Amino acid sequence: DAKTTQPPSMDCAEGRAANLPCNHSTISGNEYVYWYRQIHSQGPQYIIHGLKNNETNEMASLIITEDRKSSTLILPHATLRDTAVYYCIVRVAGFRDDKIIFGKGTRLHILP
Amino acid sequence: GAVVSQHPSWVICKSGTSVKIECRSLDFQATTMFWYRQFPKQSLMLMATSNEGSKATYEQGVEKDKFLINHASLTLSTLTVTSAHPEDSSFYICRATGQGANEQFFGPGTRLTVL
Questions:
Q1: B25 near B96, Cβ under 8 Å?
Q2: Element (H, E) at B96
Q3: DSSP strand pairing (B67-73 vs B76-81)
Q4: Which residues lie closer than 8 Å to B55 by C-beta, 6 or more apart?
Q5: What distance in Å separates the CA atoms of residue B98 and residue B74, rounded to the nearest whole number?
Q6: What's the confidence (pLDDT) of residue A1?
Q7: Range 52-91 of A in CB contact (< 8 A) with B
Q8: Are A60 and A36 contacting, i.e. CB atoms less than 8 angstroms apart?
Q9: Which residues touch B37 (CB under 8 Å, ≥6 apart)?
Q10: Backbone angles phi, psi at B50, to 5 degrees
Q11: CB–CB of A96 and B43 under 8 A?
């Protein structure tokens, strides 16, 4: 079973920041928070991951609470191409052979 | 960067026929391949895990005799849907992992439609 909880859907206006929440209250000490997204009829795409510090890359920022029980993915300036299903997953980083178990994710609609 | 490809990208077949889907790692050696399927409006569901040169390990509820997985080389894994039926119509996605921590990629998916 997925170890995360996400809202089923969210809307965001184009050009605004999209903030996607995720709860992972049972996360273990050696598990990282990963985010993937899946654009319609494509394979999942890696976005970002983190352990306890906030992380930023060219795609997004990841804010993890101090108790690590929840996190927020931030797309700073959402575009129509960011419309996708976003999956928050907890897993051990760098462990190549772990099974990535997907939950239901959040369907993000970017509104023009 | 590293890429994982799938072939075909889509396929339509008649009920009762078998369909083979290929997953290739293009510039790294994929020691482990994972196969997922995704029904419309649903999340990805893991079907099986295969290590190069070994038999695949199937998730509970997945019929190993119906979904044949071969991982005979470090760059190719195949999923064969035998005697396909309309309920097997789905989006099939592979994930390949290599020796490097960053060598983990999903394929673009194969849409199977069984008439």
A1: yes
A2: strand B90-97
A3: antiparallel
A4: none
A5: 9
A6: 57
A7: 85, 87
A8: no
A9: B44, B45, B47, B90, B91, B92, B93
A10: -130, 135
A11: no
